[in-house]
Amino acid sequence: MKSEKCQNQPCPVETTLKLIGGKWKGLLIYRLLDGKKRFSQLQKLIPSITHRSLSLQLKELEAAGLVKRTVYPEVPPKVEYELTVLGQSMSSIIYAIYDWGKFYQEGHK
């Protein structure tokens, strides 16, 4: 059983949840799966997130190597966020979470 493998070492589930846990990270990865987004686009897609939370979560995802931030030398500066190859590799996890959430919303059918 896989749960037995987590006895005396960091559990891979714990590692994954540290990277995408919290209220917004999984949702940000989901929103970035279909391509690059600007900060304002992400705010529109997730209207309940505060400017500060969005900024912090994107910085944490960038530090983890899941998101790439590109600044274009324009005035005003244009900044885009996109998933790295590592971030894209989480697509099956994010889609599984989506599917389970839909199942749950539909009354556990």
UniProtKB/TrEMBL annotation:
Name of the protein in question: Transcriptional regulator
Residue ranges of domain HTH hxlR-type in the record: 11-109
Keywords associated with the record: DNA-binding, Transcription, Transcription regulation
Domain of life: Bacteria
Pfam families: HxlR
PROSITE patterns documented for this protein: HTH_HXLR
Signal sequence range: none
Taxonomic path: Bacteria, Bacillati, Bacillota, Bacilli, Lactobacillales
Gene3D superfamilies named among the record's database cross-references: Winged helix-like DNA-binding domain superfamily/Winged helix DNA-binding domain
